[in-house]
Design a protein that fits this description.
The longest helix is centred in the C-terminal third of the chain and has 9 residues, at about 400-410. The protein contains three helices and 33 strands. Helix content is about 5%, strand content about 45%.
Amino acid sequence: MSNWTENLGIIRWSIVVNGTGGSLKIVDKMEGTQVPFETSNTYDFERKGGTDIRVRTRADEDASGGTWEYAAHGGNATPLPADDWTIDWNDSTVTIGIPETEKGKVYQINIYTQFPMDTFPNGSLVNNTARIDGVDFDSETTAKAMVGGYADGRPGYGKISLTKNVVSGVGAVPVGFTGPLVGDTYSVNLHWVGLDGTEHDEVVTLNEGQAELDSLPEFLKGTKATVTEKAPDDTENYTWESPVFEKAASDSRVAISDDKTEAVVTIGDNRVSSLTIRNTYRPRTASFSVTKDVVGLDSAEYAGREFSFSYTCGADSGVLKVGAGQTVQSPEFPVGTGCTVVEDGDSAEFAGHVVDVSPESSTVVGAVDGSDDVTVTNTYTENRPSSVAPLRCPREEATGSFRRSVRRHWDRSSCYLRSPPADQSPPRDPPMRGPWKHRLTPAHLPP
């Protein structure tokens, strides 16, 4: 609320909804005697009934840092033409209709109201209930005696309102990532020259959100104050982009530099100029490495051989090819991303050998200190046949009646053969018993 008009308070109620592809109806019932605040300000696009509607895509909303500046003022919102929606006021209730909305787009409805300054005592709550497509949403704000919408003012002086907005430059951050914390502080520098020519510098410390205006300096009207901010220090987890300054579209007293890193404010009489400073952070990125060690094979045996490793890092996955004794780096992922690395079993096989893979699977967390590096060792052991020789029945030893005896006692699963002492000839039709009996399999019988 502010006394932009003589002895009037002003509220801007903002409603943000997603397009559905169909129509949208909003019935907003406000407390007290609130009527539409009309303005001829040329910075307000397509306003009627004290209301304007701004539109942008969901992708633009994610990239905007929470502001709804028009494209003409460096933002990414466009006005919804006044002919494309309807508005009807009945006392302090307004009904807004949009016959056709688009899926994938977001709509901001801004309703500006005015009322006598004594309508809401300082510190009281002002309530609002908006019915959106049949569903009620309640909102409230605290009334304050304000200048420019924020604090007690006095003729001949003005202030600058500062709001800190901290956003991620990559949308959703990875699970486990630690970014800026609630309560972190940011330093903004105010520089101005007094009417007596004295230069002044003051550093204001902010938290995320809107600063209490009572804590900010007051300036004589006509003073030009330059507002800058040094980007916060980078951390081991994330880096900062240059700060971006944004102003209220209708405030002609504020000039933003072309690179949006500085604002020059001409102080108005009993006015507050609002600035939003957006700080965008980006998670640092890191890659993990995979090293392949081979034990039990000569280097000539695995020369040119590649081993395959599958990895899954959050929503990303892929395959790394690593030669024996080599190290390969993965693609870059945000620090804190958890990755699972598994060697492909087929690529580890080697003919005539048994392989032991250690570790069989690895879980790493993306880091910049090398703690996410993986070494996988394949140990190969030659797969040799059993050293126990089968019992054979040589052809030359199974002759004559001895051979016939062997054949006669073969029952398809085994035969029994008696071997005589060296000083005796094989007996005719030997009985199948005695100390020289041996078990033979059919595979070992003479033909």
